[in-house]
């Protein structure tokens, strides 16, 4: 399945994406905000991800491409309560141009219109203002802080901020 918005496309990952995934996932910003990815992130890590051999952010994982070039990732898992849990990252060369906002809007629209989900959630680090702005531009509302929620590779525990979006709130 693919979702489109002009030159932006959400599509399944392929093995051809492995080099771009490796490059992006070794970016210090992505590693700082996403503590669950391996460090360093290798070609084998990316290949296993594409093959589905490792746990993914969600049941549906999409490559975000712009003009045919991989610029990010967005995924969504759905639980038994018809709630979608979304996660995303954006490659350095695509930041600050609204790419992730457009991808989140596409996926959110699909989740409500095609999957008939009743709630979407996403988590950010309290200091990750860029990710929070992406969520807010699409209509997600800040709900609260999950204290000591994520364990980082260096042993630190960090809070997470919960955002949610309900049907009819997408902007």
Give a topology summary.
Elements: E1 3-5, E2 8-11, H1 18-25, H2 28-33, H3 43-51, E3 60-66, E4 69-78, E5 83-90, H4 99-113, E6 119-124, H5 129-138, E7 141-151, E8 157-165
Parallel strand pairs: 5-6
Antiparallel strand pairs: 1-2, 2-3, 3-4, 4-5, 6-8, 7-8
Helix pairs in contact: 1-3, 4-5
Q: Can you describe this structure?
A:
With 171 residues, this protein is an alpha+beta fold. 28% of the residues lie in helices and 34% in strands. It has helices at 18-25, 28-33, 43-51, 99-113, 129-138, and strands spanning 3-5, 8-11, 60-66, 69-78, 83-90, 119-124, 141-151, 157-165. An eight-stranded mixed sheet has the order 1-2-3-4-5-6-8-7, with helices on both faces. Strand 5 (83-90), helix 4 and strand 6 form a beta-alpha-beta unit. The longest helix has 15 residues, at 99-113. The protein is globular, with a radius of gyration of 15 Å. The mean pLDDT is 94.
Summing up helix and strand content along with how strands pair, one would put the structural category as alpha+beta
Give the strand content.
25-35%
- What's the number of helices? 5
Distance between the termini: 23 Å
Number of strands: 8
Largest sheet: 8 strands, mixed
- Please compute the radius of gyration using only Cα atoms: 15 Å
Estimate the helix proportion, in percent.
25-40%
The spatial strand order of the largest sheet comes to 1-2-3-4-5-6-8-7
Overall shape: it is globular
User: Residue ranges: pLDDT <50 for 5 or more in a row?
Assistant: none
From N to C, what is the helix and strand string?
A: EEHHHEEEHEHEE
Mean pLDDT: 94
